[in-house]
Amino acid sequence: MRTRTTARRPTRAQAEDAVRVLLRWIGDDAGRPGLRKTPARVVGSFEDWFSGYGVDPYEVLGGSFQQVGDYRRLVTLRDIDFESHCEHHMAPIIGRIHLAYLPDRRLAGISKLVRVVEAYTRRLQVQERLTAEIARCINDVLEPRGVAVMVEAQHQCMTTRGVHRGNVRMVTTEMLGVFQDDDRFRGEFLAAAAGQGSSHP
After folding, report:
1. Which of 30, 31, 98, 191 would be a feasible disulfide site paired with 23, CB 3.0-4.6 Å?
2. Cα 13–Cα 17–Cα 22 angle in degrees, nearest 5
3. If one looks up domain 65-194 in CATH, what number appears?
4. Which tens digits make up the pLDDT trace of 155-178?
């Protein structure tokens, strides 16, 4: 599914009322001066944090490509910073994404690739699915010879609760096409993601 929609979406007023319920549930007074505007602020933050539900990444990328011409080498984007939220605890996931594709007939504008990342990260996520969704979208729309995506992130659901381990980073990868079968291209991507430059002569 490309976009996730919810039937009979609650109103903004209902969403703000839900925040007031949570404030009372944790033991605070939702009517005290310092919290009176908090429900509206929280809902406004949710509109930003979860704006990806209103974006179709396939449409974002679909109108952006151009013909490859003579270019037949990797296109790599490193260190795309992102913030997302885990679907289990709604705690922040903060990290960076590296991606690459080997063009066949189409090239994408790099800002469009970043917008694809934003469309998927600004939703409730698990990192494994996020990694696969980004790779699959690029692969489906651009039809390249291969796509590689690496996500490195810290999960606040583990650093601020539960086991309280602050230095752990989760790394996930998705390799499609030539990146599955060709050690040269896989090695070039992994070297670029590590900041080591190209492994090709």
Report:
1. 30
2. 150
3. 3.30.1130.10
4. 988 888 888 877 889 999 999 999
CA distances (Å), 76 to each of 89, 116, 147, 161, 195, in order?
32, 15, 10, 35, 11
> Residues near 200 by Cβ (< 8 Å), separated by ≥ 6?
184, 188
Task: Give the three-class secondary structure for 168.
Answer: coil
The reported pTM is 0.90
Q: Count the residues in the chain.
A: 201
What distance in Å separates the CA atoms of residue 177 and residue 76, rounded to the nearest whole number? 15
Q: Kindly state the tokens that stand for 159.
A: 């650093």
Strand 92-102 versus strand 124-125 pairing type? unpaired
Distance between first and last Cα of the chain: 41
CA distance 8 to 189: 44
